[in-house]
């Protein structure tokens, strides 16, 4: 059933409109966002759709194709609504907290963004509802302000200490482009990213590995980065350049912290190098940067799991130009840059490696760069 069908069935009337917001794949730049560095995501064609209609002031109800019961709430404080509806209540809270007059609304949600796979299903939910409420209420919220409002819903209302990558991707990405975002200034550059024209493709391999310890480990990485920045006397690790790295590492006593810093500093540079190569039309040459990013996440940031490492190794052995885990880590998806003509062979190689390791089979598909959040 579509979001519009659920809306009609649940509320007995037509929605005022449909709004969509996508999941994302981050091409490169992992855990750099909360270090005020660089990221380069593109939006997936998979998206969350919110069918939305008006309700009395101060009343919100949300239902979805993946939950049995609707959830109703009024004006709430952070954390009051829990579970998936908390992301929706968080958006209402964040807009109101920023001084906007949020209209009451009835909302029905449907989504084909895989849940819990590191493809930002929660940001897609937040961004679809945010966009809908802004349009429905005629609120004057410029596009560049929206990701931070959605991020506050997640940070303050839901209580997840994430950066601004996912919401920026869901809201600001454009079809056929990768979004080069400076997470300090929120400046963006839309980088042409039409791989099909070059006979290339991004193969996404969902490891289907159960996410474990995600929240605690994510928070621990963030804390370690912030402590390191404090010790080094910089506002954020973004301010340490590759040229400063050796000197910075020498000032840190803790080996784990040194490796966390090395990942962030080298990863920021890899994003810059990737952008330069894409701008120069040298797409194949980004492969080694992707693979180096994976090694850095595996060895220095320590956020990979055997399932994603095997996906990277088997894709590379099958001829991929480069491959890396994408997203927060501890499971989730791998992306591989491949010749389109070799897609089937690459998938077969990864599946065979998984079978041999007796892992749950992966799910693979070719990802293209879709549009950001929009009214349909
Ligand atoms: C998750 C977070 C993002 C970002 C990535 C890692 O997706 O939500 O803010 O930190 O992990 O790059």
UniProtKB/TrEMBL annotation:
Pfam families, per the entry: GalKase_gal_bdg, GHMP_kinases_C, GHMP_kinases_N
Top-level taxon in the UniProt lineage: Bacteria
Broad class of enzyme this protein falls into: transferase
Record key words, sorted: ATP-binding, Carbohydrate metabolism, Galactose metabolism, Kinase, Nucleotide-binding, Transferase
Enzyme Commission number(s) from the entry: 2.7.1.6
Chain ranges of the Galactokinase N-terminal domain: 7-54
Listed InterPro entries: Galactokinase, Galactokinase_CS, GalKase_N, GHMP_kinase_C_dom, GHMP_kinase_C_sf, GHMP_kinase_N_dom, GHMP_knse_ATP-bd_CS, Mevalonate/galactokinase
Nucleotide-binding as UniProt keyword: yes
Residues of the GHMP kinase N-terminal domain: 87-171
Domain GHMP kinase C-terminal residue range list: 275-355
Keyword Transferase in annotation: yes
Family that this chain belongs to: Belongs to the GHMP kinase family. GalK subfamily.
UniProt name for this protein: Galactokinase
